[in-house]
UniProtKB/TrEMBL annotation:
Membrane-traversing stretches: 12-41, 53-80
Lineage: Archaea, Methanobacteriati, Methanobacteriota, Stenosarchaea group, Halobacteria
Keywords: Membrane, Transmembrane, Transmembrane helix
Region ranges (Disordered): 165-184
Protein name: SHOCT domain-containing protein
Length: 184
């Protein structure tokens, strides 16, 4: 079991261990700072703090790296918990967000310049083929309803297939489907 898996499964223990090592680090820093301050100002008690100085140094050498690892483990554990809690809704939201981004990009020049659909693509968990199917279906509907010309349809279809990285073999079946739809 990896540290991140353990941290996610035992989040409360990870937080407790991390807080313990953060406390060790803080006490070690304060002990070393107190000894230095007492030595510089010539105050008494440098002998007592001086005898604890090796422990403070060991605490600092051990506490800092373990604290850093602990903070990272807590962050990863919290992120894993949060992502598992929303994973079901994220897939649906990603699909909707991808569709909206594709529409906005088609209709808005600035969104195309920014590459909005590419930015949102990470949220869309569908495969390239599924995204291409969805986009081509919308193009077919617009063509059949007369919103776009045949030439514009073919250009946009090619763009969709290129953007999604889908093989061009599907174009002939799409053309056949369109011809059948036009006849009906």
């Amino acid at each position: 079991m990896e540290l991140t898996d353990w941290a996610s499964d035992h989040l409360l223990a990870t937080v407790g261990i991390t807080l313990g090592f953060l406390t060790l680090t803080a006490v070690s820093v304060l002990g070393i700072a107190g000894w230095l301050l007492a030595a510089v100002l010539g105050l008494g008690g440098t002998g007592a703090l001086g005898s604890l100085l090796p422990l403070f140094v060991v605490g600092l050498v051990v506490g800092v790296p373990v604290s850093v690892v602990g903070v990272v483990a807590v962050a990863v554990g919290l992120a894993a918990r949060a992502s598992s809690a929303v994973s079901g809704t994220t897939e649906i939201a990603g699909i909707r967000l991808g569709r909206v981004a594709s529409y906005v990009e088609r209709e808005n020049e600035y969104a195309r310049m920014v590459g909005l659909a590419d930015l949102v693509e990470n949220f869309d968990t569908r495969s390239a083929e599924q995204r291409a199917d969805d986009r081509t279906e919308r193009l077919k509907e617009r063509y059949v309803e007369g919103e776009i010309s045949e030439h514009e349809f073919e250009q946009r279809m090619q763009t969709v297939l290129d953007e999604e990285g889908v093989q061009r073999e599907g174009v002939s079946t799409i053309d056949d489907e369109l011809r059948a739809a036009e006849r009906n």
